[in-house]
Design brief:
The complex is a heterodimer of chains A (354) and B (298). Chain A is α+β, with helices and mostly antiparallel strands. Chain A contains 9 helices and 22 strands. Chain A folds into 2 domains: 4-226, Rossmann fold (3-Layer(aba) Sandwich), CATH 3.40.50; 244-350, Nucleic acid-binding proteins (OB fold (Dihydrolipoamide Acetyltransferase, E2P)), CATH 2.40.50. Helix content of chain A is 25%, strand content 33%. In chain A, the strands form 5 sheets. A 6-stranded mixed sheet of chain A has the order 6-7-8-3-9-10, sandwiched between helices. In chain A, helix 3 (94-104) packs across helix 4 (109-123) and helix 3 packs parallel to helix 5. Chain B has 12 helices and 2 strands. Classes of the chains: A alpha+beta (354), B mainly alpha (298). Chain A binds chain B through residues 52, 54, 73-75, 79-81, 83-85, 87, 89-92, 100-101, 104-105, 131-132, 134-138, 140, 145, 148-149, and chain B through 181, 183-184, 186-187, 189-194, 197, 201-202, 205-206, 286, 289-290, 293-298.
C-alpha cells in the first residue's frame, strides 16, 4: 500500500488538439478511499489509466510512496484494477482465477492455496470455488476481478473503473458495502472512478470532482454538498442539483431579482459574471414572503415534491416535503446561511447567516 | 384458433421456394445417387436390384482403403499445418493502422483465385523446365520432380493447399482476435501474465468458436479436394495422390461403374459427416459441460 502523488501531471493524447487532463497537483494518502467523480469524458478514466501505468502521461510525474513510477510498467507498479466490465479467465475455475496472479509471480503452492482460500472467504465465494468463472453472474465476476487484487500482498493500490456499471441495482448496494468493509479491514489505498454521485459519496472518504480534464474540488461528501467550490460541483452533486442564479454584487450584498442578499464579506472582484448558488433543500416557499416564482412543473419524487419554476428567466428548483401545501402563486426565500457566491464559476463568498 | 391455422398455412407458402430449391439442388440428386447405389445397370434403361452388394464391395476393396487413408493423411497434415500457422499469422498481424488493410488484402488474394487456376499456377510453378520453383530447386542441385517423385508430389500439393487456404484460417482467427476487448489485455498485464499465458487463457478461449469453424471448413474442403490435385498431379505419380474424390471420378466417369461409384459417394458423404460431428462434439464439449453444471447468467 502506498500514498500516491501526482506532480504537475497533464496528459494530451497524440494528435488531439487539447489536453485531456489539465495540469494537476495531487497528494493522496496511504490507505485512503478516494472517489474520482465526474461526467463521462471528463478525464477520470484517463487519470486512472495513468496511475495504473496503462497510459504514460505526456507531462508530469506519478509517485508511489515518494518513488517515481512514471516510467514503470503496470506489472512493475504492483497495482490491482477492477474494470467496468468484469474480466474473468473463462476457462478457469473461480479458485484458479484468484490463483492466476500469484502463479504468474511464482509463489509457492501452499501459500497460493492459503491466500486463495482467504480471498474466497472474504468475497463469500467459497461455494463456487470450483465452478467455471464463466458461469457466474456479473456481480460475482466483479468480485473475482477484485479478488485477483486482494490475494496479492504487494498491491500498492486498488483502482476501480466504474465497477458497478453492469451490476443490478439491488446488488450494487450490497457490493458497495462489501467494498467498504474490505477497505476498513485491509486499509488498501483505493481509487474509485464513477459518474454516480451516490456511489462516490457512500464509498469514499474524499471525493475528487473532475470537470473537463481538471480537478475542481476535493472534499468530504459533506463539503461537496454544502460548499461546492465550483458551480459544476453544485450542479452535479445533489438531486436536483444546486440552483445557480445570475446576480450582481454591490459591496457586501448580492442583488438578485431586485432583492439584496447580505454576504459574509465585501467582494472586490473584477469577474465578468457573478452567480448565487443555493440548494433546492434551502429554499422555502410561502404565499407572500419573498421573490415571486413562476411555477412550470411539479415532480413528485416520493418523500419530496420538486417545484420547478423561473424567476426572471433563471430556472429555480425547490424541494417541498410531501404533505406540505404549495401556495397558488408562491414566493421563494433563501436560507442565507447556505448561499454561496460564485465569480466566473469559482466560489468567492457565502451568504451571511443570522 | 381457425385464424391462426390459416396464418400457419400461409407461412408454408413463404418457405416453399426454398423447399423447392433445396429439393432440386440437394435432395433429388442425392436420392438419385441412393437409387444407383442399390441397383445394377447394363445400359439402356434396365436396372436390377442388388441390395447392399455395392456397399460391401466398396468397403472391402483395397483400392478404397488406400484412397481413404491417403485422403485422411492429407487432411490431417493440412489441419496440422494450416491451423497453427493461421493462428500465428493472425497473432502477428497489426491490430490498427494502415497495415491492417494491406494485410487483409494480401491475405484475401489467394482465396479469390479459382481452384483450377490455383492448380495450373502450381503445376507450372513446380515444373523443372520452366517453373520458378522447380527450376530454382533444380539449379540449387536439389532433385525435385513432382511428376516422378512421390514425396515431391505430396509436398507440392500440401504447399499449394497451405498457400491457398491458410488465409481463411488467418482471417477467421483475426476476426476473433480483434473482437477481444482491450481490458482483457490490461487485466492480464496487471495480473503479470506472460505472453504464453495471455494466449492460453485469453486469446485461445476467445477465438475457440471461430477456430471450430476454421477446422470444420478446412477439414471438409481438404477431405473433398479434387480440382487442384487433379490439375497438378492427376492423382499420380502412379496413384500416390489419388484421393477419394479423384478415385470416385475415375470410377464414375472413367470406368462408368455407376453402382459402386454411387455407393462410394454415399460412404464418402457419411465419413465427412461423421468426422465433422466428432470435431464439433469434441470442440464444444466444454461449453456443454458448463451449461449442465453452472447456473448464472452469461
Amino acid at each position: 500500500m502506498a500514498s500516491i502523488q501526482l506532480q504537475s501531471l497533464a496528459h494530451r493524447y497524440p494528435s488531439a488538439p487539447d489536453y485531456a487532463l489539465h495540469s494537476m497537483q495531487q497528494n493522496w494518502s496511504d490507505g485512503g478511499a478516494y472517489a474520482l467523480l465526474g461526467p463521462s469524458g471528463c478525464g477520470k478514466t484517463t487519470l486512472l489509466n495513468i496511475i495504473s501505468g496503462l497510459l504514460r502521461p505526456s507531462e508530469g510525474r506519478v509517485l508511489f510512496d515518494d518513488i517515481d513510477v512514471t516510467d514503470l510498467t503496470t506489472e512493475q507498479r504492483n497495482i490491482a484494477q477492477v474494470f467496468q466490465f468484469p474480466v474473468v479467465y473463462d476457462t478457469m475455475t473461480v479458485a484458479e482465477n484468484l490463483a492466476f496472479p500469484l502463479r504468474n509471480r511464482g509463489i509457492g503452492k501452499n501459500e497460493i492455496e492459503k491466500r486463495v482460500a482467504d480471498a474466497l472467504q472474504m468475497l463469500d465465494l467459497q461455494e463456487r470455488a470450483n465452478d467455471r468463472a464463466r458461469s457466474l453472474t456479473a456481480d460475482d465476476k466483479q468480485k473475482i476481478s477484485l479478488g485477483r487484487g486482494l490475494v496479492r500482498t504487494d498491491v500498492q493500490a486498488i483502482l476501480f473503473d466504474e465497477p458497478l456499471t453492469v451490476i443490478d441495482p439491488h446488488l450494487k448496494w450490497q457490493l458497495r458495502t462489501e467494498l467498504k468493509k474490505i477497505h476498513q479491514r485491509f486499509q488498501h489505498t483505493m481509487i474509485y472512478v464513477t459518474h454516480d454521485q451516490t456511489e462516490a459519496l457512500t464509498f469514499a472518504d474524499q471525493v475528487i470532482v473532475m470537470y473537463e480534464g481538471a480537478v475542481v474540488q476535493i472534499g468530504t461528501p459533506q463539503q461537496l454538498f454544502e460548499t461546492p467550490e465550483h458551480t459544476f460541483v453544485g450542479r452535479f452533486i445533489g438531486s436536483p442539483g444546486m440552483n445557480v442564479l445570475p446576480c450582481e454584487v454591490d459591496g457586501s450584498d448580492a442583488v438578485f431579482a431586485g432583492k439584496r442578499i447580505p454576504l459574509n464579506k465585501a467582494i472586490a472582484s473584477s469577474a465578468a459574471r457573478f452567480e448565487l448558488g443555493i440548494r433546492p433543500e434551502h429554499i422555502t416557499l410561502s404565499a407572500s414572503d419573498g421573490i415571486p416564482l413562476t411555477v412550470t412543473a411539479l415532480e413528485d419524487v416520493g418523500r419530496h415534491i420538486v417545484v420547478r419554476g423561473e424567476i426572471e428567466g433563471a430556472k429555480v428548483s425547490a424541494l417541498v416535503k410531501d404533505g406540505v401545501a404549495i401556495p397558488e402563486n408562491p414566493c421563494v426565500s433563501f436560507d442565507a446561511a447556505h448561499i454561496n457566491l460564485y465569480a466566473d464559476d469559482y466560489r468567492v463568498g457565502s451568504g451571511r447567516g443570522d | 384458433m381457425a385464424i391462426q391455422k390459416v396464418q400457419n398455412n400461409k407461412a408454408w407458402f413463404m418457405v416453399m421456394p426454398v423447399l423447392i430449391l433445396v429439393a432440386i439442388s440437394a435432395i433429388i440428386p442425392l436420392m438419385t445417387v441412393v437409387n444407383y447405389s442399390v441397383q445394377d445397370t447394363f445400359g439402356g434403361n434396365e436396372f436390377f436390384w442388388v441390395g447392399t452388394e455395392w456397399f460391401q464391395e466398396i468397403l472391402a476393396s483395397e483400392r478404397f482403403h488406400n484412397a481413404l487413408l491417403r485422403t485422411l493423411l492429407f487432411s490431417g497434415l493440412i489441419l496440422a499445418i494450416e491451423i497453427p500457422l493461421g493462428i500465428l499469422i493472425a497473432l502477428a498481424m497489426p491490430k490498427r493502422g494502415w497495415g491492417v488493410s494491406v494485410c487483409l488484402v494480401l491475405m484475401a488474394l489467394p482465396l479469390l483465385i479459382p481452384w483450377n487456376v490455383v492448380g495450373t499456377i502450381w503445376q507450372v510453378f513446380g515444373r523443372v523446365d520452366i517453373g520458378l520453383l522447380g527450376h530454382s530447386l533444380a539449379s540449387l542441385g536439389i532433385d525435385y520432380n513432382y511428376t516422378q517423385n512421390n514425396l515431391d508430389a505430396w509436398l507440392t500439393l500440401i504447399l499449394m493447399d497451405v498457400w491457398h487456404w491458410t488465409s481463411l484460417v488467418v482471417l477467421l482467427c483475426y476476426s476473433g482476435l480483434v473482437s477481444i476487448p482491450e481490458v482483457y489485455y490490461q487485466a492480464a498485464r496487471i495480473d503479470g501474465a506472460s505472453r504464453w499465458a495471455v494466449f492460453r487463457f485469453i486469446q485461445l478461449p476467445k477465438i475457440k468458436r471461430v477456430l471450430l469453424i476454421a477446422v470444420l471448413l478446412r477439414f471438409m474442403d481438404s477431405f473433398m479436394i479434387y480440382t487442384e490435385p487433379f490439375v497438378v498431379t492427376g492423382g499420380g505419380p502412379g496413384n500416390i495422390t489419388t484421393f477419394l474424390s479423384i478415385d470416385l471420378v475415375q470410377m464414375a466417369v472413367g470406368q462408368f461403374d455407376l453402382g459402386p461409384a454411387a455407393a462410394m459417394s454415399l460412404i464418402y458423404f457419411l465419413i465427412i459427416l461423421l468426422v465433422c460431428w466428432v470435431f464439433y462434439t469434441v470442440m464444444t464439449s466444454y461449453d456443454n459441460d458448463e451449461q449442465s453444471n453452472g447456473g448464472g447468467a452469461q
